[in-house]
Amino acid sequence: AASWLDDPVEKINTLREGLKEHGALVALQNSFGEYWLDITETHKPNLDNLMWRYREAVTVDHFRSEFKREIDNKFKYPLLEAFLKEENALSLVKYIADIFSWHSILFEVLGTQIYTREQASSITNGDIISRLPRYRQKSARQVLKRYCEGFN
């Protein structure tokens, strides 16, 4: 009977290939951790894990289509229905604080005085800021910048 000593190089190469395959398998097992046995189903799988194994990714589009699919949703959730319908216009809502902040500065500087269209068109935003106390002008410029971002 031939022994492994008869051709040690062949035996070493065979062992090396076996270890490579085993190493890849061990790496795969380690990456799946506790779920390896459930995936390979070498034992009775845990039904809780299997339930969560496959699922469709949840996206805004997926949510929107599922919401619209259920006709009663628009009656059950009218605010959400309105939100989804007007979603594009609502992107400007994030600027509402900046709009109010700039209007506050305008009312502070201009007061309640009534201006004609011609007078109002001759007043620039720079004029408004220059009428504020010097220590407030920098923050007013920042408010104006955010206000302008909302309209561009």
Describe this structure in words.
With 152 residues, this protein is mainly α. It has ten helices and no strands. The longest helix has 25 residues, at 8-32. It is elongated and about 105 Å long.
Q: Would you kindly provide a brief summary of this structure?
A:
With 152 residues, the chain is mostly helical. The chain has ten helices and no strands.
Descriptors for this entry?
single chain; mainly alpha; 67% helix
Describe the secondary-structure layout:
Elements lengths: L7 H25 L3 H5 L6 H5 L8 H10 L3 H4 L1 H8 L10 H15 L6 H6 L2 H6 L3 H18 L1
Helix pairs in contact: 7-10
Specify the overall morphology.
elongated
- SS-derived structural category: mainly alpha
Helix and strand pattern: HHHHHHHHHH
SS field, number of helical segments: 10
Major beta sheet, specifics? none
Report strand %.
under 5%
- The low-confidence runs, each spanning 5 or more residues with pLDDT under 50, are none
Q: Rg to the nearest angstrom?
A: 35 Å
Mean pLDDT: 79
Counting DSSP E segments of at least 2 residues, the number of strands comes to 0
Helix fraction bin: 55-70%
Alpha-carbon distance between the two ends = 87 Å
